[in-house]
Amino acid sequence: MWLNGREQSMKSERLQSVIAQIKRICRKRKMDCDQLEEKLQWKLHICSENNFPTAAGLASSAAGYACLVYAMSKLYGVDGDISKIARQGSGSACRSLYGGFVLWNKGESVDGEDSRAEQIAPETHWPDLRILILVVSDQTKHTGSTVGMQTSVETSELLQQRIQTVPDRVEQMKQAILKKDFHTFAEITMKESNQLHAVCLDTYPPVSYLTDISHHIIQLVHAINQDNGSNMVAYSFDAGPNAFLFVQEKDVPIVSRVLCHFYPSSDPHFLRGLPMPEKTDYQVDYTTFSELKVIPKALKFIIHTKPGPEPSVKESCCELLASDGFPKVNSNDDKQS
Amino acid sequence: MWLNGREQSMKSERLQSVIAQIKRICRKRKMDCDQLEEKLQWKLHICSENNFPTAAGLASSAAGYACLVYAMSKLYGVDGDISKIARQGSGSACRSLYGGFVLWNKGESVDGEDSRAEQIAPETHWPDLRILILVVSDQTKHTGSTVGMQTSVETSELLQQRIQTVPDRVEQMKQAILKKDFHTFAEITMKESNQLHAVCLDTYPPVSYLTDISHHIIQLVHAINQDNGSNMVAYSFDAGPNAFLFVQEKDVPIVSRVLCHFYPSSDPHFLRGLPMPEKTDYQVDYTTFSELKVIPKALKFIIHTKPGPEPSVKESCCELLASDGFPKVNSNDDKQS
In whole angstroms, what is the distance from residue A117 CA to residue A105 CA? Predict the structure, then answer.
């Protein structure tokens, strides 16, 4: 296996378990697949490339496992629900098997059989929703999200309250998405992020993913929203310091202008992903943000993106492996992001 | 009024309310005090000096209001419970009217009449308990603790769980203090601090007092304790980034050595307060702290202190006002800490 051009160990227990499970399902269902028995004997070469940073709290393992499970299911001709298998690789990978807005149901059964992902709305439902991923420069080492969550379950008293709170919030969030009610969507998103990180802090020993820069982004977002009179932007933080900002397409120019003011960068590729509208008629009155300092080089770069579709098999021109079964681009040394 | 040599406005509503209440109690009780009526007509000159930083989350307002209320009660000859008055100035000032280990009871009555402080043990009870106050260099502006707490009460859902949790913890803490059980005392102290700041983060908009340096101190303390096999040191954070570390006297040399390793400073007055034992036979194996970076100048200084006695009237040689009623040292310009 190669990940971003670098050869990887296949020894990971989770990786082995995911591969074994897909093969097992094949055998069990006696799939009507061409040369199934032969295929099951094949040795696999797996090549994976991210266009975003790995292991930085940007859900790269969710994307990776969703992609792997999807690709293997296509190879072996496995139909039906593969989200349970993906979930074994990385919990949130089950969500990444669907496009658009996806809910991961906790389920009721003890063996987790009914803990599955479900699409609330496809990505076409809210076409003007945009995401700005703020990749923070100082990626200090942090607790992995799986280990962190297990410790939280064992030690956080506040988690008991959160368990009571979440079902209502999920329902409110579903409605906000279906109604495309940005203000409410933004408020729930921010409160959810804050509460998740509050529980991390209540864990013993405490787990902290947010840095001074993360907190600066939080303050900036609240300042923008207060200045605007309603929510123009929302933040969410996963198991790392990077921010996911949600914005409506019409507000991307003003929000990106404010971000570039507070986090100036000399990198010509500072803004990546979808094109940023180059509007010059937005005037921002920075006196309303007087409490906030400008922090040069706080961010490595910003990725401009939007909710995407489910995994799909790409055209053959996009294959990552050459005909000899080895990566087309083998950049062990210099292609690390 | 002068605070640390600088003339202050007396317009603060809380300050005026505290002064008015003491005078009212005097009149109501018809205190048998020499020249009471004359004294009540006096104009007051108040001079206050701190030996620690003001408005940095080090409970300077609690100390200040406790001192003011105590001094005025002596002036007017008010006996009995003055903690209720002190509490109006700064909630935790009611605790500062007693020495040693003090519990602030929340009380049950709606008007807060029975929300009073109570001494659990005098400072002589645990004579080898020491406190290291780590004053962090970057004192970024933060939300005042009173405003922050009010917003938490209004918006934090997790606070509901904390309200359930606190009474048990208070009882456990009381027992740990009475038994001088340092390991348990340390664990409850750290969990309490973490939970308080978790609730701050669950507030909307979130309130954050801890900085990257605070979190580094937290990680360092857990690393020391893990290395030691039981709790050698505990942290607690108030409404600011500074850490209060609790240590037993015998462990001060090793803990201060580790602190000076991770937070090196060239300030000859870096270690202040009680003398630091200069033991050279402690060898610390820093390889066990391999995940933690050394951060020069992270701390402004460290104050070495211990639980103190209640307020007292000092000898006349220590008066802060000269015979003309003005501060002996009037250092408006250069005496700010």
Answer: 6
Distance from CA of A214 to the nearest CA of B (A): 10
Asked whether residue B333 carries a pLDDT value surpassing 50, the answer given is: no
Q: Which residue has the higher pLDDT, A261 or A28?
A: A261
Q: Is A206 close to B199, i.e. CB distance below 8 A?
A: no
**What whole-number distance in Å separates Cα of residue B293 and Cα of residue B213?**
11
pLDDT digits (tens, 9 = 90+) for B210-247: 999 999 999 999 999 999 999 999 999 988 899 999 99
Q: Tell me the range of A56-65, B245-254, B283-292 where mean pLDDT is highest.
A: B245-254
Which residue in chain B has the smallest CA separation from A195? B202
Contact between residue A219 and residue A210 where contact means Cβ atoms under 8 Å apart: no
**Do residues B227 and B288 make contact, with C-beta atoms less than 8 angstroms apart?**
yes
List Cα–Cα distances, B42 to A337, B34, B36, B212, in angstroms.
Answer: 73, 13, 10, 49
More confident residue, B62 or B331: B62
Q: Which of B141, B190, B208 sits opposite A291 (nearest CB)?
A: B141
B201 and A191 within 8 Å at the Cβ level: the answer is no
Residue B280 burial (C-beta neighbours within 10 Å; 0-12, 13-18, 19+)? exposed
Closest CA–CA distance from residue A153 to any residue of chain B (Å): 15
Alpha helices in chain B (DSSP H): 13-29, 36-41, 60-76, 83-89, 145-155, 158-178, 182-201, 212-228, 252-262
Give the CA radius of gyration of chain B: 21
Task: Compute the Cα dihedral for B151, B153, B156, B158 and give only its sign.
Answer: positive
Q: Which two tokens stand for residue A281?
A: 């008629």
d(CA B298, CA B137): 6
State the pairing for strand pair A2-3/B271-273: unpaired
- Which chain A residues touch B195 with a CB distance below 8 Å? 157-158, 202
Give the pair of three-digit tokens for residue A55: 């292991």
Dig out the tokens for A115 from the structure.
């803990």
Contact call for residues B261 and B284 (beta carbons, < 8 A): yes
Q: What confidence score (pLDDT) does residue B307 get?
A: 94
Q: Which of A153-167, B272-286, B298-312 has the lowest mean pLDDT?
A: B272-286
Q: How far is A158 from chain B (nearest CA, A)?
A: 6
Q: How many angstroms separate the CA atoms of B216 and B234, rounded?
A: 14
Minimal C-alpha gap between A126 and chain B (Å):
26
Model ipTM value: 0.86
Tell whether the model's pLDDT for residue B131 goes beyond 50.
yes
Tell me A35's DSSP state. T
Contacts of A236 in chain B (CB under 8 A): none
Indicate the pTM of the whole model: 0.88
Of B141, B187, B195, the CB nearest to A158: B195
Is the Cα torsion angle B60, B62, B63, B68 positive or negative in sign? Answer: positive
For testing the chain B interface, which of A202, A207, A216 should be mutated: the one with the most B CBs within 10 Å? A202
pLDDT by residue (tens digit) across A231-253? 999 999 988 899 999 999 999 99
Give the residue on B whose Cα is nearest the Cα of A200. Answer: B198
Residues of A in contact with B206 (CB under 8 A): 194, 218
Q: What token pair was written down for A53? A: 């940073």
Question: Which among A154-158, B80-84, B87-91, B113-117 has the top mean pLDDT?
Answer: A154-158
Minimum CA–CA partner of A189 in chain B? B204
pLDDT band at B248 (very low <50, low <70, confident <90, very high): very high
* Per-residue pLDDT reduced to its tens digit, B157-203: 999 999 999 999 999 999 999 999 999 999 999 999 999 999 999 99
